Amino acid sequence: MTTTLQDCRALDAQDRLAPLREHFTLPPGVIYLDGNSLGVAPKATAARVADVVTREWGADLIQSWNTASWFDLPQRLGNQLAPLIGAGPNEVVCTDSTSINLYKVLSAALNIAREDSPARRRIVSERSNFPTDLYIAEGLCKERGLELVLVEPQDIATALTSDVAVLMLTHVNYRTGAMHDMAAITAAAHAAGILCVWDLAHSAGAVPVDLHAAGADFEEWRASKSADFAVGCGYKYLNGGPGAPAFEWVHPRHASRPGLKFMQPLSGWWGHATPFAFTPDYQPAPGITRYLCGTQPIISLSALQ
Ligand SMILES: Cc1ncc(COP(=O)(O)O)c(C=O)c1O
């Protein structure tokens, strides 16, 4: 069967997404296929950033931490993003870079997974995962005397042995575009007592993602298809601009776990329960807020918004 130009034009005319092009500042005639690296600029971004610089910062100055709600911007953006990745309200924050967020969630996942089972001393990942993911995992393994095991996609299932603490995968491969069955792999990992960390850099904003999958009950974790931790970039299909803040998601069953040993390691003041009490000791904020570290880049977060 041949496809004619007329067929293509007819399909284009039915494309419900086509009008969305008008929301972006693409130069005329450009067909842009590099959104996997740097998403195009939304037309709304320049005005939003200008307003932050001239009014919120320029005129209102320090009051804007309260009047413009700068302080809870990471959580507000997280709530805006949540439906795109199948997360619930107050489960996501936009902050830091994907690499830094991966360090935080992978550390927390290791702390949780190894609490009851210290014999679990491996992180399993895919050899063709994006390098930064592998470097962060390698660094953590060196720091803690653990082992990073890299496998081919077809060997993931057999690598889920009783000495594995965490399975860390990227949902859509940056080089091949191959997409994992997140729910099936997560369920297989959970059945083997392994926590799952997913990198959604190439899925958030591009393909449907359902982190809560079957909506499984917390108590049914072993049979659950619901992921444990996730991170992803803000500058690819979320069009947040070069170096935009990334995001991180932690399942509520892990996020508020009592005990400092289950914490993410970058325990800065923005993750404190009462940051303006300025106490000398660290008390984690409830939920995903404890995954914040220090003062947030408000202008960059506003561009992502
Ligand atoms: C899967 C994946 N993770 C992470 C990153 C980048 O992380 P960061 O924003 O910290 O440089 C990329 C960049 O392309 C990526 O493809």
List the helices and strands and how they pair.
Elements (H helix, E strand, L loop, with lengths): L4 H10 L28 H17 L4 H4 L5 H9 L10 E4 L2 H19 L5 E5 L4 H14 L2 E5 L4 H4 L4 E7 L11 H10 L3 E5 L29 E4 L13 E5 L1 H4 L42 H7 L1
Parallel strand pairs: 2-3, 2-4, 4-5, 5-6
Antiparallel strand pairs: 1-7, 6-7
Helix pairs in contact: 2-10, 5-6
The protein binds pyridoxal-5'-phosphate (PLP).
List keywords for this structure.
305 residues; alpha/beta; Aspartate Aminotransferase, domain 2; 10 helices; binds pyridoxal-5'-phosphate
Describe the structure.
The protein is flat. Helix content is 32%, strand content 11%. The protein has ten helices and seven strands. With 305 residues, the chain is of the alpha/beta class. A seven-stranded mixed sheet has the order 1-7-6-5-4-2-3, sandwiched between helices. Helix 2 (43-59) runs antiparallel to helix 10.
